[in-house]
Structures are given as C-alpha cells and as structure tokens.
Amino acid sequence: MAADAKTLDFTVRGFLFELREIDGRLSLRAPHLAGYGAISADWQSADVRRRIQGGKKQLLARAVGLHKHPNLQVLDGTAGLGRDGYTLAALGATVTLVERTPALVRLLRDAQARALIDDSSRAIASRMTVVEAVTHELLARCAAEATRWDVVYVDPMYPEDGKSALPAKEMQVLRDLTGGDADADTLLEPALACARQRVVVKRPAKAPWLAGRKPNLEYLGTQARFDVYLPAR
C-alpha cells in the first residue's frame, strides 16, 4: 500500500476495501458490506467534541490520570481512528498513536494533517505522533532500550457480543479489516514494563479482565470501563 495513496483498492483477508478522498478527507469503504457508508478519522465530529467538553473529570481522563497530572506522555497502543488519543491530547497529554493496520494509519495521518492546518486544532494535533508499528514489537524494544511513557493505554477490539461502544456498522468494517485483536492478552505484561505510572485498558463494561488479571483500579461507565494496572516499583 503506497504511503501517499489517495485512491486505492486493496484486499485484506479476502475482503475488498477502497480508500478514497471524499469531501476533503481520506475515507475507507467496504463494498462487501452493502449499505455501509465510508468511515474516516474525524476528530472534529460532535462525538469527539462532547468527549473533550467532558474535561478531565470524565472516566477516560481520570483513568489515565490527567485530572491529577497534566502534560502526561501517553502511548495509545491501539489507536484505531484516534478519537481517544485526540481527546487525551486536547486535555493536555502528549500522545503517541500506534496502529499496525496500514489503512488505519493512512486515515490517522490524514486526520492529523487536516487538524494541523486548522487554527482550532493545530495545537492539539502538534502534541500527537502517528506511528505505524505492531505494538507488541514496539513495547519489546521499549523494554530493551529502557524507553518509557507515563501511561500506556490500550483499547483492544473485543470479540463480537453486540455490546460495542462503537457504532455497529463502523465496528463491522473494522473487524473485517483487522481481524480483531486476538493477541490482546499478551499486551499487558510488556505494557507494564514500559509504563512509568500506569497501564489503562478500555473494556466493555461486563467483559472479563485482560489476560484474566484483576486491575488495581476500575472506572466503570454504562457501556465501557477503564481498568488501571500499576507497574511494580
């Protein structure tokens, strides 16, 4: 997949996908899902604005620790479309967005490029870095090189149960594109090795703990919860 592709058809896991520039933004379509619209990394949506307006008292910010420690360095190891990462950056964090799916990396970089030319979002986008990498491999290098972030945040795709916080159509496109995150349980230990303060795992509200490990703290919402793991000192 060409790094600068603006119009591209590609096949993943037997499914055809299309990258197109639509209304000034790079968008992804899945023609095999009849009636599903294109998706993009939209950081100016009403949903993202509501998240930001929730401030540092919202569950995400509290779980990460922004209500007590401004200017945190956060590694978002499962960036997806970047909404949580952008919210954290808007609330003061410096965020490294890590994504292993090339098409999603293109959407993230397109969103950041658009945000950097907008006066209202330039400062936020400048606190974000998009990295195309497999998070497991990046964390392994981090542990070997003693690189650390204040917080490692992961929001692995949970097996389909009809209770996702994402819109159903968007989730189906992402599942077909990525195949899910079957290796998510193996993220916890390397994440703890690379976090100075905490690892935060976003889960559906009634989902089991990642890797079967009880967190030190939980922040419970109606659809999702944030499990907080504190690294050994």
Can you give keywords for this protein?
233 residues; alpha/beta; Rossmann fold; 7-stranded mixed beta sheet; 3-stranded antiparallel beta sheet; 25% strand
Give a structural overview.
- The protein has 233 residues and is of the alpha/beta class.
- The chain has a single domain, classed as Rossmann fold, CATH 3.40.50.
- It is built from eight helices and ten strands.
- It has a seven-stranded mixed β-sheet with strand order 6-5-4-7-8-10-9, sandwiched between helices.
- Helix 1 packs across helix 3.
- The protein starts with 7 loop residues before the first strand and ends with a strand.
- Tell me, what's the shape? globular
On the 0 to 100 scale, the average pLDDT is 91
At the first level of CATH, the class is Alpha Beta
- Number of structurally distinct domains: 1
CATH architecture: 3-Layer(aba) Sandwich
Helix content: 25-40%
Main β-sheet description: 7 strands, mixed
What sequence of helices (H) and strands (E) makes up the elements?
EEEHHEHEHHEHEHHEEE
Helix/strand-derived category reads: alpha/beta
Radius of gyration over C-alpha positions, nearest whole angstrom: 17 Å
End-to-end Cα distance: 43 Å
For the secondary structure, the number of strands is 10
What's the CATH H-level homologous superfamily?
Vaccinia Virus protein VP39
| Strand order across the largest sheet | 6-5-4-7-8-10-9
Number of helices: 8
Q: Uncertain segments of ≥5 residues (pLDDT<50)?
A: 162-166
CATH topology: Rossmann fold
The portion of residues forming beta strands comes to 25-35%
